[in-house]
Amino acid sequence: MLIRLTVLLAAALALAACQSGRRNTAPAAPQADVLTVTAGAQSVNVRADPETIRRSIVASATERGTPIAQNQPNMVVLERTVREANPALDAEFGPSDNGERKFRIRVRFQGTRCDTLVVQDVFVVNNAGTALEQVFALTQPQYNPRQSLIGLKAKSERSGGCA
Fold first, then answer.
1. Are the C-beta atoms of 94 and 82 separated by less than 8 Å?
2. Per mean pLDDT, which range of 9-18, 97-106, 135-144 is the poorest?
3. Degrees (nearest 5) of the Cα angle 19, 24, 28?
4. pLDDT score for 24
5. pLDDT tens across 53-69, in order?
6. 3-state secondary structure of 2
7. Which of 5, 7, 28, 30 has its Cα between 20 and 30 A from that of 42?
8. What angle do CA 126, 128, 134 make, to 5 degrees?
9. Separation between Cα atoms, residue 150 and residue 152, nearest integer Å
10. What single string gives the DSSP state of each residue in 101-155?
11. How far apart are CA 39 and CA 136, in angstroms?
12. Computed from CA positions of residues 125, 142, 137, 117, in that sequence, does the dihedral angle turn out positive or negative?
Protein backbone atom coordinates (compact mmCIF):
# COMPACT_ATOMS: atom_id res chain seq x y z
CA MET A 1 0.00 0.00 0.00
CA LEU A 2 2.83 2.35 0.89
CA ILE A 3 4.59 1.54 -2.39
CA ARG A 4 1.42 2.36 -4.38
CA LEU A 5 1.05 5.66 -2.57
CA THR A 6 4.70 6.53 -3.19
CA VAL A 7 4.43 5.70 -6.90
CA LEU A 8 1.21 7.71 -7.18
CA LEU A 9 2.81 10.68 -5.40
CA ALA A 10 5.89 10.50 -7.63
CA ALA A 11 3.72 10.40 -10.76
CA ALA A 12 1.71 13.40 -9.57
CA LEU A 13 4.89 15.37 -8.84
CA ALA A 14 6.35 14.49 -12.25
CA LEU A 15 3.15 15.58 -13.98
CA ALA A 16 3.10 18.84 -12.02
CA ALA A 17 6.75 19.50 -12.92
CA CYS A 18 6.03 18.96 -16.61
CA GLN A 19 3.02 21.25 -16.59
CA SER A 20 4.67 24.03 -14.61
CA GLY A 21 6.95 24.74 -17.57
CA ARG A 22 4.01 25.46 -19.87
CA ARG A 23 2.87 29.01 -20.31
CA ASN A 24 -0.68 29.96 -21.00
CA THR A 25 -0.54 32.64 -23.70
CA ALA A 26 -4.31 33.05 -24.00
CA PRO A 27 -5.89 35.76 -21.84
CA ALA A 28 -7.83 34.51 -18.84
CA ALA A 29 -10.98 36.35 -19.93
CA PRO A 30 -11.92 37.69 -23.34
CA GLN A 31 -11.10 41.34 -23.73
CA ALA A 32 -13.99 43.67 -24.56
CA ASP A 33 -13.73 45.49 -27.85
CA VAL A 34 -12.89 49.15 -27.49
CA LEU A 35 -15.76 51.37 -28.59
CA THR A 36 -14.67 53.55 -31.50
CA VAL A 37 -16.16 56.72 -32.93
CA THR A 38 -16.38 56.26 -36.69
CA ALA A 39 -16.46 59.06 -39.28
CA GLY A 40 -19.78 60.88 -39.12
CA ALA A 41 -20.71 59.47 -35.71
CA GLN A 42 -21.56 61.63 -32.73
CA SER A 43 -20.32 60.79 -29.24
CA VAL A 44 -20.77 61.99 -25.69
CA ASN A 45 -19.53 60.92 -22.25
CA VAL A 46 -22.37 60.29 -19.81
CA ARG A 47 -22.23 60.09 -16.02
CA ALA A 48 -24.38 56.94 -15.86
CA ASP A 49 -23.94 53.20 -16.31
CA PRO A 50 -24.64 51.43 -19.62
CA GLU A 51 -27.90 49.83 -18.37
CA THR A 52 -29.33 53.23 -17.39
CA ILE A 53 -28.45 54.53 -20.84
CA ARG A 54 -30.07 51.53 -22.53
CA ARG A 55 -33.26 51.99 -20.49
CA SER A 56 -33.33 55.71 -21.35
CA ILE A 57 -33.05 54.99 -25.09
CA VAL A 58 -35.78 52.34 -24.97
CA ALA A 59 -38.11 54.56 -22.92
CA SER A 60 -37.60 57.51 -25.27
CA ALA A 61 -38.20 55.35 -28.36
CA THR A 62 -41.34 53.88 -26.80
CA GLU A 63 -42.67 57.36 -25.93
CA ARG A 64 -42.13 58.53 -29.52
CA GLY A 65 -43.37 55.34 -31.15
CA THR A 66 -40.00 54.68 -32.79
CA PRO A 67 -39.51 50.97 -33.60
CA ILE A 68 -36.57 49.25 -31.91
CA ALA A 69 -34.78 46.91 -34.33
CA GLN A 70 -32.21 45.63 -31.79
CA ASN A 71 -32.06 45.92 -28.02
CA GLN A 72 -28.82 44.54 -26.59
CA PRO A 73 -26.89 45.27 -23.38
CA ASN A 74 -24.43 47.66 -25.12
CA MET A 75 -26.33 48.67 -28.27
CA VAL A 76 -29.80 49.77 -29.31
CA VAL A 77 -30.78 50.17 -32.96
CA LEU A 78 -33.81 52.27 -33.85
CA GLU A 79 -35.48 52.50 -37.26
CA ARG A 80 -37.61 55.23 -38.77
CA THR A 81 -39.37 54.72 -42.09
CA VAL A 82 -38.99 57.60 -44.56
CA ARG A 83 -42.55 58.25 -45.75
CA GLU A 84 -42.01 61.25 -48.02
CA ALA A 85 -39.94 61.57 -51.18
CA ASN A 86 -36.38 62.70 -50.53
CA PRO A 87 -34.62 63.87 -53.71
CA ALA A 88 -31.35 64.52 -51.82
CA LEU A 89 -31.17 60.89 -50.66
CA ASP A 90 -32.22 59.68 -54.13
CA ALA A 91 -29.42 61.71 -55.71
CA GLU A 92 -26.77 60.51 -53.26
CA PHE A 93 -27.76 56.87 -52.71
CA GLY A 94 -30.12 56.04 -55.56
CA PRO A 95 -33.86 55.46 -55.35
CA SER A 96 -35.49 53.04 -52.93
CA ASP A 97 -37.92 51.73 -55.50
CA ASN A 98 -38.25 48.08 -54.46
CA GLY A 99 -38.94 48.57 -50.77
CA GLU A 100 -39.14 51.11 -48.00
CA ARG A 101 -36.38 53.54 -47.16
CA LYS A 102 -35.46 53.74 -43.50
CA PHE A 103 -33.12 55.63 -41.26
CA ARG A 104 -31.32 53.23 -38.92
CA ILE A 105 -29.96 54.89 -35.78
CA ARG A 106 -27.38 52.80 -33.95
CA VAL A 107 -26.51 53.84 -30.40
CA ARG A 108 -23.59 51.97 -28.84
CA PHE A 109 -22.38 52.49 -25.28
CA GLN A 110 -19.60 51.16 -23.11
CA GLY A 111 -18.31 52.16 -19.73
CA THR A 112 -18.52 51.87 -16.00
CA ARG A 113 -20.98 52.91 -13.33
CA CYS A 114 -20.53 56.67 -13.74
CA ASP A 115 -18.51 57.02 -16.93
CA THR A 116 -19.95 55.69 -20.18
CA LEU A 117 -19.05 56.60 -23.75
CA VAL A 118 -22.10 56.77 -26.02
CA VAL A 119 -21.65 56.69 -29.81
CA GLN A 120 -24.50 57.33 -32.22
CA ASP A 121 -24.31 56.77 -35.96
CA VAL A 122 -27.00 56.93 -38.61
CA PHE A 123 -27.49 54.87 -41.76
CA VAL A 124 -29.95 55.07 -44.62
CA VAL A 125 -31.38 51.77 -45.81
CA ASN A 126 -32.73 51.57 -49.36
CA ASN A 127 -35.18 48.78 -50.19
CA ALA A 128 -35.36 47.74 -46.52
CA GLY A 129 -36.36 44.15 -45.89
CA THR A 130 -35.90 43.03 -49.51
CA ALA A 131 -33.18 41.10 -51.32
CA LEU A 132 -32.06 44.46 -52.78
CA GLU A 133 -31.46 46.09 -49.37
CA GLN A 134 -28.53 48.53 -49.35
CA VAL A 135 -27.16 50.26 -46.26
CA PHE A 136 -25.19 53.52 -46.42
CA ALA A 137 -23.52 55.34 -43.52
CA LEU A 138 -24.59 58.96 -43.26
CA THR A 139 -21.69 61.18 -42.32
CA GLN A 140 -23.37 64.57 -42.79
CA PRO A 141 -24.27 66.30 -39.52
CA GLN A 142 -27.82 67.15 -40.63
CA TYR A 143 -28.68 63.43 -40.54
CA ASN A 144 -27.06 62.81 -37.17
CA PRO A 145 -27.83 65.79 -34.94
CA ARG A 146 -25.97 66.08 -31.67
CA GLN A 147 -29.12 67.34 -29.91
CA SER A 148 -30.51 63.80 -29.57
CA LEU A 149 -27.35 62.70 -27.74
CA ILE A 150 -27.46 65.72 -25.45
CA GLY A 151 -31.06 64.82 -24.57
CA LEU A 152 -30.06 61.22 -23.89
CA LYS A 153 -27.17 62.43 -21.72
CA ALA A 154 -29.44 64.68 -19.63
CA LYS A 155 -32.12 62.00 -19.19
CA SER A 156 -29.61 59.27 -18.28
CA GLU A 157 -27.70 61.45 -15.84
CA ARG A 158 -30.92 62.46 -14.04
CA SER A 159 -31.77 58.82 -13.38
CA GLY A 160 -28.21 57.43 -13.17
CA GLY A 161 -27.43 58.27 -9.56
CA CYS A 162 -23.98 59.76 -10.27
CA ALA A 163 -23.14 63.23 -8.97
1. no
2. 9-18
3. 130
4. 42
5. 999 999 999 999 999 99
6. helix
7. 30
8. 45
9. 5
10. EEEEEEEEEEEETTEEEEEEEEEEEEEETSTT-EEEEE-SGGGS-HHHHHHHHHH
11. 13
12. negative
